[in-house]
Request: fold
Amino acid sequence: MAKKPRFQLVGAPGNTTRWRLLGGNNVSLGSGAVNYRDNRECVAAIHWLRENLDSTRAEYSHNSGGTWRWLLYADAGLVALASHPYGRKIEARHGLERFWAAAPSADVLDSREKVADWRAKYRIGGESPHKSFE
Reply:
């Protein structure tokens, strides 16, 4: 039985919470760009995003290393971004299309729990992979 896309709450620095959207195959389709004070605020932001997805605008960022990321903006600023870099802009565009297709109907996993950000132990100096976009 295939799993549905779902939003997962992830622990962030300072005991804050961030979200990520997982596809049915457990691949991360995108991440929230904001750290929230608690799970309740994070879940409210997910619901807001799902309801306002049509009013967001996308941009693509290219760094000197030759990788691309998609960035999703609302009036308030950056709300979501690619969870990982893509080798080509068209791959980033396809990644954003998968995010847009999955987000409106994705479930929110248990809002009382959050998973640890496993990437934190691999960061040099504890830097966030999202730092350049915040």
Remarks:
- Residues 118-134 have pLDDT under 50 and may be disordered.
